[in-house]
Amino acid sequence: MTASAAACPFCQPAQLVTQNNLAYAVVDKHPVTPGHALIVPYRQVADYFGTTQTEKVVLRSLIDAVKTILDAKPHPRYRGDMEGPRGGVCGAIPKKQFC
To answer: Which residues are CB-contacts of 12 (< 8 A; sequence separation ≥ 6)?
Structure first.
């Protein structure tokens, strides 16, 4: 394993919720809402739009699987949705933080 892979939080996932051959889902350490999870492709890409069509299908199927497993619905972030948020969309881009 390279030093960059060892430092990457996505290269050694913990607390797997579910997985398949192209992607995995993990519980978010700093959830934006209860039941929040991260769905990550095994192949490193800059964002969702860098995934292949096959990966997109697999990622979407994991959303359904995680909803069933965690009995939760995906919700977008919005101002004031929780007190003292950390991580997630709220803190992802420092210049655009709104919390």
So the answer is: 5, 6
